[in-house]
Amino acid sequence: MSPNTFINFRLFYNQTIHPELQRIEIRRKRLIILLFISIFIGAVLILLGVYIQSFLIILYILLGIGILIIYLIYRMRKFKKHFKPKIVELILQYLNQEMSYSNLVYHPYQTVEIQKILDSELFQESLDNFQGEDYISGTVGNSPFEFCELEIASESKIRPTMIPLFKGLFTIAVLPFSINDHLVIIPKEEKVFLSKTIKHFHRIGLKNVKLDKKDKNFNDSFLVFSNYDYTFNKIMANPIKQKLIQKLENDTFSYLVIKNNLLYLALSQEKDILEPRLWKTNIDFKLIQSFIEDIQSMFDLIIDFDNYN
Q: Domain spans of the chain?
């Protein structure tokens, strides 16, 4: 985040987001008080049941405690569901005022269509578990895009368990130009988990691209596939390569596919973005700043492809 952007966002945070966080904080504190009161009531009821030693009364007490637990779970889920949509909508309100963004729309419980994700050809395993949320669409630079948080897994053929394939941020953007080729970039560290994907790219005719000596750092970190060697040098400007390397150094695996004018970009991320805290205040500028930096880092790559091509 540039100094000017930081100042503008801090001002927007103070005037718009912070007051909403204060209102949410009141709800969080009420929920904490309710939790402690419920624990106290539950403890009293259990002691009462032990003292009376009546099976029927103990049964009623356990039923009451069960209903109380269900209600508390409902209240906690309601708190979490209210937090993220409200804050994300305010953040998008800020981004819509920036020159690089327009028509940003947020749907908390939608996802990018599974067929569009499959069209990236990054995931060749069977997608037995597919979960997506926090769908955002709009335009960044000159490129319409779709974005969501994504978690997919495949059922193990050896044990009755799910094997994680990807968890993170997934974006599809329509670039304002076409490369008339198929370019794929995946992290070398993930090679062992992407054997089927690599075989698929070879099967459809893509070949391993030999990079120049000046791209040694990138070559040490990523596998590159394409129909033609020159496509990589033509499309991948140095600032784009440096950003992908930097993300890898920060333990973020970047997967990139360009098919003609379609850009598929996946950034691995273990944490759920902007999840509210129950036992700690959410009035935290760094929490909000972290979220906007996460999504801007992905959108900045889309803008870079537009600016350098």
A: 3-93, 102-307
